[in-house]
Design brief:
The complex is a heterotrimer of chains A (306), B (327) and C (380).
Chain A: H1 3-34, H2 41-59, H3 62-83, H4 93-115, E1 131-133, E2 139-141, H5 142-164, H6 166-176, H7 178-183, H8 188-213, H9 221-235, H10 240-266, H11 271-296
Antiparallel strand pairs in A: 1-2
Helix pairs in contact in A: 1-5, 1-8, 1-9, 1-10, 2-3, 2-4, 2-8, 2-9, 3-8, 5-6, 9-10, 9-11, 10-11
Chain B: H1 3-24, H2 28-53, H3 62-81, H4 98-120, H5 125-145, E1 155-156, H6 171-194, H7 196-206, H8 208-213, H9 218-244, E2 246-247, H10 254-267, H11 274-292, H12 296-310, H13 314-320
Helix pairs in contact in B: 1-2, 1-13, 2-6, 2-9, 2-10, 2-11, 3-4, 3-9, 4-9, 6-7, 7-9, 10-11, 10-13, 11-12
Chain C: H1 3-16, E1 26-32, H2 39-55, E2 61-67, H3 72-84, E3 90-92, H4 97-109, E4 113-116, E5 133-135, H5 142-153, E6 159-164, H6 167-180, E7 186-190, H7 198-207, E8 211-214, H8 219-230, E9 237-240, H9 246-252, E10 260-263, H10 272-285, H11 291-309, H12 315-323, E11 335-336, E12 342-354, E13 357-370
Parallel strand pairs in C: 1-2, 1-3, 3-4, 4-5, 6-7, 6-8, 8-9, 9-10
Antiparallel strand pairs in C: 10-12, 11-12, 12-13
The chains are: A mainly alpha (306), B mainly alpha (327), C alpha/beta (380).
Chain lengths: 306, 327, 380
């Protein structure tokens, strides 16, 4: 393998990781602040993608589609929070798992009811399509670079929001002592709705951006959801920094593992056997990574005491 | 006799009565459905020992369910094709005998639970949920891409395995076998709850510090509970594979773990007969709603949501009227 | 409160209660995927099948349709229900190979006929073949073999091939190599359900390949094509029809334009049966038919033709009637090989745009009167 190919694959892993971060950030925020496990987070990702595809199809504008994705998923998040989720905060994790599992069923088949059974079309806009040549002669799709840029700036924005703004102070206060900040006069239920809608919007944005690269279809959220859980668990639940590191780790492991494992096995196996075994192992790799991290550090890399 | 016992007796009578009635009126498919309920309830009983009694929220019980299923699939497929499982260091043949398959399924899933439990129980809370999920997913992806036993296509077993003295192809006789397994597991579970071990485990769930203080190791209690739980779910997996005469990686999927958990929660966490009620309601709904609307999952979702939000303690809790599952 | 449980019991009981209507109609049980991500394929299969039944007068077939949710254990359960309680004579409709593997052996062992509208895994074509099992679609390897033959004929010498790591994917690459037979620039198994192909595309770019063959059904193919089109790579792409079917082409969009794919059917095959089918399908459902719809339509017509020649109560005669395949296939010439899989032409198609709609046109024939390699392994 040439160094150039390797660098390109690292970029791919980075881009995948950044996408996972957008999903994981909302999940980890919601867990950190409200102590809620939300299996329906993947459905909000799907809502974003479908909203974007619908609006792009109608208006032809990708930017408008992104705005629609943000708005639709934030709205869906807020509605779900007001009607269902807020009844779950004082329940145990089991009830949360079951209730949000039920939400997945409603969202998935409801979407199919509205949009039909065939995948929708959402394409990369002209001004972001095609490859660019990077220093060193790597040809890399502009859209993927844009995803990396958007993801990293959102990560920076989130850090700023948590560390520097009034909302961030409240979020951090809510994480450590929710009775106290309620007693201090913060409208805690409004704070929860805002945080949940924010997490939903991030998931929706991820769905819309990925939707242009992949296919917009029912059930697209679930595989990503599982990966996002892997990410926040590796990073330590509730930690934005952990989510970022975890996401990059998972993205790079998944991309490079699929590439390097078969190559490594070829050294002492037949080519076709090595390809089959290597890809079998590669598909288990991130789960092995997660198990190893948890055995080593039972609360994830940056997890505090919860 | 308190209300929960009456509800339990009614559940058991119903699960026995409906297929008998179907047998009398020659409705074999109803018996098949009841068999499915009995098997999935058995899987739920297994999970309930970890979940209800031990407070261990495992989202990876499909791992044991699938291992049980593959124990059946692998043994029976070798017997079916007359090829030995392995020849060296000693000859190991496949088998079509249910008792042997059950034993292997119990042992294999207990062994898996031993490993997964030893590693996972170092964590707690959400981390435990997720690490069990991770182990389930590992086995899922492994079973898909491992070509020796069919990969994603799974394994088809043309004839249901045999049980000495019974004709397992007859739906009512196979139901009787599954029902007997479920009854045995329920009896075992009831004994376990009242045993010193069960009491200590219950205490470890409610107040781990106190249990540690009196010198009982919470890790060991939970570990044993997890292994028992995995083994019972593994047995259910072997029966499930025999019901379908088919195993596939689907048995390892996280949705499967989720469904088993839904049975338990729907029925009532920690309630002895909760999984029976949950599985019966779920399977019934699946069939009734499935016939009414192509988008029936939406209604199922709403129904589950209503149960979680307004019927705490599940169906058994609703019927028995007591919110606390344990005395 | 106990009412809930009694209602539940009554419902279980009612399920068994549907007695079969005994008016001489043949009872057909269709198990197919009508919910979840793969529902489009099942819906097309069903609609094609029902259309043929309707055009034939509508009362010859008594069809029960059920949703398998793409889960093998649900499919098995539905098969049990249809055999035990609905007392169907024929089963059909399964889209996916793994579901077919779960249902078909048990159904044929119980003496039922199974007519495959799509899935035709190699395990059921060779040693596992059965006189009561007919594949009306193809043998799973066929379209991949055709792609291999096309790549060879077109003079490519260094293709890069990829498929998901599961049995149908492995069969696909083996099928491709069987009739291609030359050197490969690379061979990669991707994860099943994978949605990001950046790593594979980078490998293709680095491999110096002169063409690409891929088998990535459903959403996987959509993702691959969109990402490939955006990568700046411009190698000719060949694949089996599944990723270029009418149902999903609109979601791929421009990225699919000009791609070569192999199929045993297309809407522009010039014969009266096909013209009638395409027109009737559009009139009935308001959309263009897909490959799956054509397969469903052909399956129903095969069944109707056999009914005209023999009665289902005489299984041997009915089997012989099915095997003679005396019906007007929308594909033109159609016959069954010794292992009950089709002998048919496999075409080369190219993706084009008609007005606003992406569709395919036939540009050549990859294989003529092609059967499959498993015929000799089948003893029945």
């Amino acid at each position: 393998m040439t160094p150039l190919l390797f660098i390109e694959q690292v970029l791919n892993g980075l881009q995948f990781g950044v996408m996972l971060f957008l999903m994981a950030a909302g999940l980890t925020l919601v867990f950190g602040v409200m102590g809620l496990i939300n299996l329906a987070h993947g459905s909000l990702y799907m809502v974003g993608a479908f909203a974007a595809a619908a609006v792009a199809g109608w208006s032809g504008s990708f930017l408008l589609a992104l705005v629609a994705a943000l708005a639709a998923s934030a709205a869906a998040g807020a509605i779900v929070e007001l009607t269902v989720i807020r009844r779950l905060y004082d329940r145990d994790h089991l009830d949360q798992v079951l209730a949000t599992f039920a939400l997945i069923l409603i969202f998935s088949e409801g979407t199919r009811w509205l949009f039909g059974s065939f995948p929708l079309f959402l394409d990369i806009p002209d001004w972001l399509s095609g490859p660019v040549t990077l220093p060193g002669g790597i040809e890399y799709p502009l859209y993927r670079l844009a995803i990396i840029a958007v993801g990293l700036s959102i990560a920076a924005g989130l850090f700023w929001l948590i560390a520097r703004t009034r909302l961030g102070i409240r979020i951090r206060a809510g994480e450590s002592d929710r009775e106290m900040i309620a007693a201090l006069g913060v409208d805690i239920s409004r704070l929860y709705t805002i945080v949940f809608a924010l997490g939903a919007a991030l998931a929706g944005l991820a769905g819309a951006m990925v939707g242009a690269l992949q296919s917009v279809q029912v059930g697209m959220g679930e595989p990503v959801l599982i990966l996002a859980f892997v990410v926040i668990v590796i990073g330590g639940i509730g930690s934005i920094k952990g989510a970022l590191i975890g996401a990059l780790l998972v993205g790079l492991t998944d991309t490079l593992g699929g590439l390097l494992l078969p190559e490594a096995l070829k050294l002492f196996m037949e080519t076709s056997d090595a390809t089959a075994t290597g890809s079998a192992l590669a598909s288990m790799l991130i789960y092995i990574l997660m198990a190893v991290v948890l055995i080593w550090r039972p609360r994830g890399l940056f997890g505090g005491a919860t | 006799m308190n209300r929960e016992r009456m509800v339990n007796a009614a559940l058991l009578t119903l699960l026995l009565g409906v297929p008998l009635w179907a047998w009398a009126t020659d409705e074999p498919f109803t018996i098949t459905l009841a068999t499915r309920v009995a098997i999935l309830a058995l899987a739920g009983v297994g999970l309930n020992i970890a979940l209800g009694l031990g407070g261990l929220v495992s989202l990876g019980h499909a791992a044991f369910f699938g291992i049980g299923g593959y124990a059946m699939g692998i043994l029976a497929s070798h017997a079916q094709s007359y090829t030995p499982l392995m020849e060296s260091p000693f000859l190991l043949e496949g088998t079509k005998s249910m008792p042997v398959i059950w034993l292997v399924a119990l042992l294999a899933s207990a062994l898996a639970a031993l490993v997964i439990g030893a590693l996972s129980l170092r964590t707690s809370g959400v981390y435990f949920i997720m690490i069990t999920l991770a182990f389930g997913q590992m086995l899922y992806f492994f079973s898909i891409s491992w070509p020796a036993y069919g990969g994603e296509d799974g394994l088809s077993i043309y004839m249901r395995n045999g049980f000495p003295g019974l004709n397992t192809l007859d739906p009512i006789q196979f139901f009787a076998i599954c029902f007997a397994c479920l009854a045995a597991a329920l009896w075992f579970n009831a004994r376990l709850v009242r045993s010193p071990f069960g009491l200590a485990l219950n205490a470890a769930r409610q107040s781990p510090e106190r249990v540690e203080t009196v010198g009982l190791g919470t890790f060991r209690l939970r570990f044993v509970a997890f292994v028992i739980s995995g083994a019972i779910t593994g047995l259910a997996g072997a029966l499930f594979a025999d019901l379908n005469r088919f195993v596939s990686p689907n048995m390892f999927s996280w949705q499967m773990s989720g469904e088993i958990m839904v049975f338990v929660i729907l029925g009532g966490v920690g309630r002895l007969y909760g999984p029976v009620a949950g599985a019966a309601l779920f399977i019934t709904l699946e069939h009734v709603l499935g016939g009414i609307s192509p988008f029936w999952h939406v209604w199922l979702g709403f129904l589950l949501l209503l149960v979680v939000l307004f019927a705490r303690g599940g169906i058994v809790g609703l019927l028995a009227g007591r919110r606390v599952a344990h005395d | 409160m106990k009412l809930t449980i009694f209602v539940a019991a009554a419902c279980i009981a009612a399920l068994g209660g549907a007695a079969s209507a005994d008016d001489g109609a043949l009872k057909v049980g269709m198990i197919t995927t009508l919910s979840g991500g793969g529902a489009g394929l099942g819906i097309d299969t069903r609609d094609g099948f029902l259309l043929a039944a309707k055009l034939a007068g509508g009362d010859a077939l008594d069809i029960v349709v059920e949703d398998d949710q793409r889960k093998p254990d649900i499919a098995v359960q539905l098969a049990d229900k249809m055999i035990q309680s609905e007392k169907v004579d024929i089963l059909t409709g399964i889209v996916w190979s793994n579901l077919a593997m779960a249902v078909v052996p048990a159904a044929t062992a119980q003496g039922k006929f199974y007519l495959s509208t799509n899935a035709a895994p190699s395990a059921l074509a060779g040693k596992g073949c059965h006189p009561n099992y007919f594949s009306v679609s193809y043998q799973n390897d066929n379209l991949h073999e055709a792609a291999g033959a096309y790549v060879k004929d077109a003079g490519y010498t260094n293709p890069f091939i990829l498929a998901p790591n599961y049995p149908a994917g492995q069969d696909s690459l083996i099928g491709f190599k069987r009739l291609y037979g030359g050197d490969l620039a690379g061979e990669v198994y991707t994860k099943l359900g994978q949605t990001d192909y950046a790593a594979e595309i980078a490998q293709i770019r680095a491999s110096g390949a002169d063409s690409i063959f891929f088998f990535l059904p459903g959403g996987m193919g959509i993702s691959f094509l969109k990402q490939y089109a955006d990568s700046g790579l411009d190698l000719p792409v060949v694949g089996p029809a599944f990723s270029f079917d009418q149902g999903i082409l609109q979601a791929v969009g421009d990225a699919a334009m000009g791609v070569i794919n192999t199929s045993q059917w297309n809407k522009d095959i010039d014969n009266p049966a096909n013209a009638r089918f395409v027109e009737a399908f559009q009139a009935e459902y308001g959309r263009l038919p897909s490959l799956y719809a054509a397969q469903g339509y052909d399956t129903a017509n095969l069944l109707l033709s056999a009914m005209a020649r023999a009665d289902i109560s005489d299984a041997d005669a009915f089997r012989a009637a099915l095997k003679s395949a005396d019906f007007d296939s929308v594909r033109g010439d159609f016959a069954f090989a010794a292992n009950n899989h089709p002998i048919q032409d496999i075409y080369v198609r190219e993706v084009i745009k008609e007005g606003d709609v992406y569709t395919n046109k036939i540009v050549g024939v990859a294989l003529e009167d092609h059967a499959n390699v498993y015929v000799d392994e089948c003893n029945m």
